Amino acid sequence: GWEGGYPEIVKENKLFEHYYQELKIVPEGEWDQFMEALREPLPATLRITGYKSHAKEILHCLKNKYFKELEDLEVDGQKVEMPQPLSWYPEELAWHTNLSRKILRKSPQLEKFHQFLVSETESGNISRQEAVSMIPPLLLNAHPHHKILDMCAAPGSKTTQLIEMLHADMSVPFPEGFVIANDVDNKRCYLLVHQAKRLSSPCIMVVNHDASSIPRLTIDVNGTKEILFYDRILCDVPCSGDGTMRKNIDVWKKWTTLNSLQLHGLQLRIATRGAEQLVEGGRMVYSTCSLNPIEDEAVIASLLEKSEGALELADVSSELPGLKWMPGITHWKVMTKDGQWFSEWEAVPHGRHTQIRPTMFPPSDPEKLQAMHLERCLRILPHHQNTGGFFVAVLVKKSSMPWNKRPPKLQGRPAEPREPMRPGPADSAELESKAVGGVGGAELAETAENDGSKRDGVCGPPPSKKMKLFGFKEDPFVFIPEDDPLLLPIQKFYALDPSFPKMNLLTRTTEGKKRQLYMVSKELRNVLLNNSERVKVINTGIKVWCRNNSGEEFDCPFRLAQEGIYTLYPFINSRIITVSMEDVKILLTQENPFFRKLSSETYSQAKDLAKGSVVLKYEPDPTKPDALQCPVVLCGWRGKASIRTFVPKNERLHYLRMMGLDAPAEKKAAGAGLAPEGTGSSAPPEDGDVGAEGGAEPAASVDAAPDPAPTEAALPR
């Protein structure tokens, strides 16, 4: 009953068993349990996104409603166990069940629970993520001021964890830190964008590069160009994936040692590139979903050896109490795909030298090996806590990598706290040539004329001659000048606070009407403006305003976008209507409720406002513990005699669920034309101000890239 539905694949591979028994990665006497666990389907795990103020409410809703409904439930003759929190994940924000994904999708008794998961995942409140994949971001120990690089980020579940860490303090709309999420695969980058967009953060940038040669970026620090070094780097490298056999069943028949031998070099290059870009004192997490020492300890040992003391393994044994893991191994052998073993490089015949490399073997010097402390690596075995297999190592940088070291500084001057940041003469020249070299003729003339497009605030697409570009050609990122006449009516209409960072507003078009306005943090603005020729940016910024189709007749041509409202709200001083919980229910279940349907307090605030975009704010009342206990900010439209909300469908359903409205209400809401913001089916307000809205703008029309991720409407319900 619990099988994964792959009867034709026999879960057996003699070579796999022979290999890992020989390497002794499983403790004595546990081999049968290890193999048994690998043959069982992986249990479904979910994580509640931690930075939203709604996390506690979702947890409350899950425990008191959805989990209760699973009590005493039987599916295919098997009792459904109650979901349990992962003991090592902080604040009960991650849970696992004994339900496989197939059962969740197929069982009529679980339909409501499955719908809840799909809908909440879509609105970014829950991530359906494998338990072991939650470990690397936790060990990265990121803080809101950290500059973070995620080197191989797609599909993005770890990236979303990092974004949450940046927004640990919800009262700060723009944390100082940021996440640059990279992936080599252009198509997967759009999946990454889709995942990150659900968290609506102005501090994330998605880029498309080969991680092993990801370009070194520069930033402007008080008028001087300096190299950007990251405080935290996540290096979750491509791997053979034999730790994922429980969900990727075809690994059973495809497994061979050749995969590991072929990937080892790439993994080492990516980890080395990461180490180069890490700031001194920074932390890098290297992880794979493989159990193979060739991809795990061999890469770490080789990296430590060539770092000559610049890197060391951190002891993280006490950082995740409750997590069971095996220490890294210090001795291993290399096996060819036909079963031949080698225990040292010297024994490898010349004909095999292209396939087997010296970096795949443990260091031969026992003192050197001991000093590496490879036992500080963590290997997670599937049978210990019913998870997938995984490997993690945490590296700390003590000094520059040996090949990056500069001549010693003059005596008497304090050592710089970071790696060489200010480029010397040679570096400056290199930077200049990088900035201008390889640009097409017309672009070159324009660059010379404007002293670099930086001043214009335009970050154009990278020049095609300089970099091999694959995939979709991105629109430029154009920062709006602070004196742009566009901004004045917006500032006036919403009474924006003087502290509002206008310089961080950008659009994705150089000519014609600006239809959507996006916002990034000032740190990402710095990165964008200084690296447009060097880096292929796929997406950044959150949408904060959209142009009304016939907005010229109103006081302000731009309406607020729900995607960016939590970032924008702290700066808005007018057009805010405080609403009660009953009002929120009415606004989210009815298309255009007339003023008379809302409370008198709401009506008295709305009646004197001019037609146009409004903010609807619900503040929790601590004296009523049964009511919703998190603040809610919604975008709305004040029509002639009614108010409507502009909120994507899954977000509506989310708020309604948090307020205890049950599934029938959800179905009714879903049928009441509550389309996602921007699907074009948002009907205009019924009291005649059609021109006011004319339907929401398509949500990603300016992110010209075709997002392969399914739209909300296309998701299975």
UniProtKB/TrEMBL annotation:
<dbReference type="Pfam" id="PF25376">
    <property type="entry name" value="Pre-PUA_NSUN2"/>
</dbReference>
<keyword id="KW-0007">Acetylation</keyword>
<keyword id="KW-0808">Transferase</keyword>
<protein>
    <recommendedName>
        <fullName>tRNA (cytosine(34)-C(5))-methyltransferase</fullName>
        <ecNumber>2.1.1.203</ecNumber>
    </recommendedName>
</protein>
<dbReference type="Pfam" id="PF25378">
    <property type="entry name" value="PUA_NSUN2"/>
</dbReference>
<comment type="similarity">
    <text>Belongs to the class I-like SAM-binding methyltransferase superfamily. RsmB/NOP family.</text>
</comment>
<keyword id="KW-0819">tRNA processing</keyword>
<feature type="domain" description="SAM-dependent MTase RsmB/NOP-type">
    <location>
        <begin position="34"/>
        <end position="398"/>
    </location>
</feature>
<keyword id="KW-0694">RNA-binding</keyword>
<keyword id="KW-0820">tRNA-binding</keyword>
<feature type="binding site">
    <location>
        <position position="210"/>
    </location>
    <ligand>
        <name>S-adenosyl-L-methionine</name>
    </ligand>
</feature>
<dbReference type="GO" id="GO:0000049">
    <property type="term" value="F:tRNA binding"/>
</dbReference>
<dbReference type="GO" id="GO:0005737">
    <property type="term" value="C:cytoplasm"/>
</dbReference>
<dbReference type="GO" id="GO:0030488">
    <property type="term" value="P:tRNA methylation"/>
</dbReference>
<feature type="region of interest" description="Disordered">
    <location>
        <begin position="403"/>
        <end position="434"/>
    </location>
</feature>
<dbReference type="InterPro" id="IPR023267">
    <property type="entry name" value="RCMT"/>
</dbReference>
<dbReference type="InterPro" id="IPR049560">
    <property type="entry name" value="MeTrfase_RsmB-F_NOP2_cat"/>
</dbReference>
<dbReference type="InterPro" id="IPR029063">
    <property type="entry name" value="SAM-dependent_MTases_sf"/>
</dbReference>
<feature type="binding site">
    <location>
        <begin position="152"/>
        <end position="158"/>
    </location>
    <ligand>
        <name>S-adenosyl-L-methionine</name>
    </ligand>
</feature>
<keyword id="KW-0489">Methyltransferase</keyword>
<dbReference type="Pfam" id="PF01189">
    <property type="entry name" value="Methyltr_RsmB-F"/>
</dbReference>
<keyword id="KW-0949">S-adenosyl-L-methionine</keyword>
<dbReference type="GO" id="GO:0016428">
    <property type="term" value="F:tRNA (cytidine-5-)-methyltransferase activity"/>
</dbReference>
<dbReference type="InterPro" id="IPR001678">
    <property type="entry name" value="MeTrfase_RsmB-F_NOP2_dom"/>
</dbReference>
<feature type="binding site">
    <location>
        <position position="183"/>
    </location>
    <ligand>
        <name>S-adenosyl-L-methionine</name>
    </ligand>
</feature>
<feature type="binding site">
    <location>
        <position position="236"/>
    </location>
    <ligand>
        <name>S-adenosyl-L-methionine</name>
    </ligand>
</feature>
<dbReference type="InterPro" id="IPR057285">
    <property type="entry name" value="Pre-PUA_NSUN2"/>
</dbReference>
<dbReference type="GO" id="GO:0005634">
    <property type="term" value="C:nucleus"/>
</dbReference>
<dbReference type="InterPro" id="IPR057286">
    <property type="entry name" value="PUA_NSUN2"/>
</dbReference>
<feature type="active site" description="Nucleophile">
    <location>
        <position position="289"/>
    </location>
</feature>
<feature type="region of interest" description="Disordered">
    <location>
        <begin position="668"/>
        <end position="717"/>
    </location>
</feature>
<dbReference type="GO" id="GO:0005576">
    <property type="term" value="C:extracellular region"/>
</dbReference>
<keyword id="KW-0539">Nucleus</keyword>
<feature type="compositionally biased region" description="Low complexity">
    <location>
        <begin position="695"/>
        <end position="717"/>
    </location>
</feature>
<dbReference type="InterPro" id="IPR023270">
    <property type="entry name" value="RCMT_NCL1"/>
</dbReference>
